[in-house]
Amino acid sequence: MSISEIAFAVGFKDSGYFSKCFRKKYDQTPREYMNEWRKG
Fold it and tell me: What are the residue boundaries of the HTH araC/xylS-type domain, all occurrences included (predicted)?
């Protein structure tokens, strides 16, 4: 699932704004988070 698909699935109309909000809350981008999660 792409970042855009996740953003839209959780109610964001703009994936860029989703990424900005995500980074503000978690101090990393959604992509960085996904990469860490995949590493386990």
Answer: 1-36
